[in-house]
Amino acid sequence: xxxxxxxxxxxxxxxxxxxxxxxxxxxxxxxxxxxxxxxxxxxxxxxxxxxxxxxxxxxxxxxxxxxxxxxxxxxxxxxxxxxxxxxxxxxxxxxxxxxxxxxxxxxxxxxxxxxxxxxxxxxxxxxxxxxxxxxxxxxxxxxxxxxxxxxxxxxxxxxxxxxxxxxxxxxxxxxxxxxxxxxxxxxxxxxxxxxxxxxxxxxxxxxxxxxxxxxxxxxxxxxxxxxxxxxxxxxxxxxxxxxxxxxxxxxxxxxxxxxxxxxxxxxxxxxxxxxxxxxxxxxxxxxxxxxxxxxxxxxxxxxxxxxxxxxxxxxxxxxxxxxxxxxxxxxxxxxxxxxxxxxxxxxxxxxxxxxxxxxxxxxxxxxxxxxxxxxxxxxxxxxxxxxxxxxxxxxxxxxxxxxxxxxxxxxxxxxxxxxxxxxxxxxxxxxxxxxxxxxxxxxxxxxxxxxxxxxxxxxxxxxxxxxxxxxxxxxxxxxxxxxxxxxxxxxxxxxxxxxxxxxxxxxxxxxxxxxxxxxxxxxxxxxxxxxxxxxxxxxxxxxxxxxxxxxxxxxxxxxxxxxxxxxxxxxxxxxxxxxxxxxxxxxxxxxxxxxxxxxxxxxxxxx
Length: 607
What we know:
By secondary structure, the chain is α+β, with helices and mostly antiparallel strands. The protein is 19% helix and 29% strand.
C-alpha cells in the first residue's frame, strides 16, 4: 500500500464515528474467506448463529437473551437493521432506546458473541413493508427494491447512516461484526443486477469492509437472481434434507464456505389460521448433519419475541394474509424468552461438536412471571370523538398520500339524499367498518376479498368508512404497491361518490382521548387500572374481546383479534410500574367483556 493511500484510508476510517475508540479499546482482528472456510484470526471458524432482533425484544432483556444463546451453544448473533424504525420520516433518524443498534451489537460482543449484520435496505422478516419506510409509497410510481434512482437515493442515505452508527464495530476495528448481508432473498423477488450491485456499493460506501454475503433459497433461479460474484452465497431452508439443499448450492457455485443463512426451525402465523408448531427431532437432526459436515448455520429464529405496535407484516398468496403480533415462531426461546424443548435438543446437539476446551455456559436464572387478577375497564372514549381537522378531497386518498404510516383512517361522506343499494369500496385495505351515525352497517375484510355491502342510508347523519391498516405486505411482488386506506374509489348503486372528508388516525397516543365512566359502544377505547406490587412478564388474556389493539402504560402491545390464533398479548416486566398501572384497549366490536386478566402462558385458539 502506498503512503498516500494509507493516509487516505486512515483519514476515511477516522471519519467514521466510534472507529478510533473501537480500534483503541479492542485489538484489530482478521476475518476472511479461505477457500471453503471462514477464517477468524488465522483459524477456521464454524459459525453457530441465531437470529434475534432488537426492536422485538425490550432493551433490558437483550443481555439475558444473549446469555441464553451462549448457553445453547451459539457463538454468533444475527440481526437485521430496520429502516422504517430508524427513519420514520425522510432524513429524520432515530437510533435511541430500543433502536440503539450500536449498543445492541456492543452488548453482543460483551456476551461473547460475534455478529452478522443484515442492514437491508429490505429485510422481509414478517415486518411491516419488509422494513421499508411507508413514506416511500407516498410517491405514486415509486419502484422499491429496484434501480429506481429515487429509491436508491433514499436507501443510500439510510445505509450511510447505519454505517455511521455501527461500521466502527466491525471485527477489523475491534468489534464483533464478521459479515454484512447485501439486501435479503432478492432472488425470490427479481433479477435486477444493477440494483444488487448498487446496494453492494452503498454498503461498501457506508464503511463496511468485512466480507459481504447474500442469502437466498437453494433453487437455481433464486441463486441466479440474488447472488453476487464477490459475496459469499448462503442458503435458507427449514427441515427436510440439508444434504439436498447444499447439493443444490454446490451445483450453482462450487467454491466458498457452506452456510445455512436462515435455518427455519419454526414458522410465523397469520390471523385466522392455525398456530404453527414444528417437531423438534427433524430440526435437531438437520443441525447434527450440518455440524457433522463442518457447515455454519444461523437459526431463524432463536428468539422471535414480539412485533409490538403496528410492526407485524403480511403475506399475499392468492389472498391477503396479515401476520399476528406475536413472533414466537416456535423458537428455542419462546416469546417470553423461556427455553423450550427445542432449546434443550439443540443444546445437546451443539455440545457434541464443541471445539477442544470449549464449554457451554450455564443458563441465567429465569425471569419472573406473574398472573394479574381480573380487573374491570371502567372508562371509555368513543374512537370517533376526537377527529381533528379533515383533509377534503374529491376522491379518497390513500393513507400514504395523506401523510400517514400506520393505524386507522376515516373517510366521511355527507349525503344529499337518502339512498339504498350496493356500497362498493375499491379497495379497502385492509379492514373496513362502515357506519352511519352510531349504527354499524357491516365490515369488509380484505382477507376474504370483501368489497361490497348492501346498505339503506338516510340523508343524515354522514356515511363513515373506518379503515384499519392491518400491515403492509413484506414479501413478494404485491408489496411494491400495497398502499393503505381506500386505494381507488367508492360507489353506491354504481354511482361514484365524491366529496370526502378524510381523517388520519395514527392512534399513537390513545391517552389523549376524552375518557368518561361507562362502557360505551364500539368502536371505543376502554381504560382500566390495576395495582402491582412486583413486576414480571405476563400474557394478557384477550378472549371475550373482539378486534383491536391494547396499550400498557402507553406501550403498544400489538393487535388482538378473536379470529385467532393469538388470543393473548405479551407484556414484558420493564413496561410495568410499581403501584398503579393503566391498560387501554381499543375494540372495534361490541361485546359483553370489558375486563382483563393475565397469566403466565400464551393462549392459542382459532375460531
